[in-house]
Amino acid sequence: MLAYQRLRAAKHSNTTALVAVFISSLLAYTLWELTDVQTLRKNSFKWHHTDNPIPHTIWYKLGPQGLSEDASGWVDGCLSKNPTWKAQYMMDQNADEWVASSFSDRPDIVRSFRNLTTPILKADFLRYLLLYREGGMWFDLDVECGETPIDDWIPTAWKANTSLVVGWEFDAGLPNDVSHQLESWTIMSRPGSPYMLQAINDITQAIHDEAGEHSVPISELKLHMLPNVIDFTGPARLTRSVFKALEQTLGTDVDRRLVQGILEPTQLGDVLFMPGWAFSATQGQYPEEDRDKIGSRLVIHHYAGSWKNEHGGERI
């Protein structure tokens, strides 16, 4: 009888210990989540204005298989046409390390980025992080430079007060009551941009929201759980974030029609909007009467679409 009581007491003690460990782990996870959310809210509209010029750096993200022959040719072509610009490459490991170091004051960002496992989500997120902290130009690997030098993209009169250059993807030929969308394969930015920070904060919040909605850690978020990539981290997200931040910086509602259906670069605040022909010439059609007014395309996007698979990107 005594032996039975001891055995039962031991089992009870083990069970109590396991429950205690579980509760402690759950509490730690909850506190971590709360800390992240509190950090996010504290920094939601916090940015650091800078008058620094746009650095002459083109950022690229390499997958596990590195540069393809085509991509290598496009990169070399861009650099030969723009000798004052240099290329910088990020791969998965050094991207994680760079984010951890560069955003150590934002544990919500670091945790969200490092725990994502879908390549395209991380690549989208990374471009905004790089441009916010470092500035320069983001190119997807399937972007080829046109004949116009990058230094000539911004009209001289606007160079001093342009902090962001974005281009329309879906704009030409669309009525104003249809959704117009910016592209995200070519973005130019000064460091410290409020527009890139808005995209960062919006994505970080969305990651937390989706993980909570599905009751999974960020590392277990999968593509099929999300609305769609374009809306979650891609061009649609960029479009919303840019206009949201514009309203914050200008202190007023912004009528998007001011920069829609444009035939030449148009500035709103310190954002330069490029017409569809500049970065996305193959999307949309200009009316016959406008075709002699458009310029030569600044980049050629080859639509490699390496992210369009079940993994959301390239794997070894």
From TrEMBL:
This protein's UniProt keywords = Membrane, Transmembrane, Transmembrane helix
Q: Pfam families per the record?
A: Gly_transf_sug
Gene Ontology CC entries for this record: mannan polymerase complex
The record's InterPro entries line, in alphabetical order, gives:
GlycoTrfase_DXD_sugar-bd_CS, Nucleotide-diphossugar_trans, Och1-like
Judging by the UniProt lineage, the source's domain of life is Eukaryota
- TM ranges are 12-32
Per the UniProt entry, what are the Gene Ontology biological process annotations, in alphabetical order? protein N-linked glycosylation
Q: What GO molecular function terms would the record report?
A: alpha-1,6-mannosyltransferase activity
Family according to the record: Belongs to the glycosyltransferase 32 family.
Stated name of the protein = Initiation-specific alpha-1,6-mannosyltransferase
- Protein species of origin: Gnomoniopsis smithogilvyi
